Amino acid sequence: MAKVEFNEERCKGCGLCVPVCPKHIISLRRDRLNSKGFHPAGVEAMDQCIGCTFCAVICPDSVIEVYR
């Protein structure tokens, strides 16, 4: 099973990772703010992740790590 980790403190909530996810399991966490005042992205259903790395490739700040 794949695992995705977001460095929430570095995420600026740009949302580029949300539409590229083929399983539609990434969203901006509207219930959280990081220390810079942004809503960080995160995975809602980790068990559905296929480890495609699309989210990590498109992230301009390299805050996403994908483990297979």
Task: Please characterize this protein's 3D structure.
The chain is globular, with a radius of gyration of 11 Å. The model has no long low-confidence stretch (mean pLDDT about 95). By secondary structure, it is α+β, with helices and mostly antiparallel strands. A two-stranded antiparallel sheet has the order 1-4. The protein has a single domain, classed as 2-Layer Sandwich (Alpha-Beta Plaits). The chain contains two helices and four strands; from the N terminus they run βαββαβ.
CATH architecture: 2-Layer Sandwich
The first-level CATH class name: Alpha Beta
**End-to-end distance:** 6 Å
Percentage of residues in DSSP E strands: 15-25%
Report the uncertain regions: none
Q: What value does the average pLDDT take?
A: 97
Shape: globular
Number of self-contained structural domains = 1
Structural class, please? Answer: alpha+beta
CATH topology: Alpha-Beta Plaits
Q: Note the run of SSEs as H and E.
A: EHEEHE
Helicity level: 10-25%
In summary, what is this structure?
The chain is of the alpha+beta class. It has 2 helices and 4 strands; from the N terminus they run E-H-E-E-H-E.
What attributes characterize this protein structure?
68 residues; alpha+beta; Alpha-Beta Plaits; 2 helices
How would you summarize the topology of this molecule?
Blueprint: E1 3-6, H1 17-20, E2 26-28, E3 41-43, H2 54-58, E4 64-67
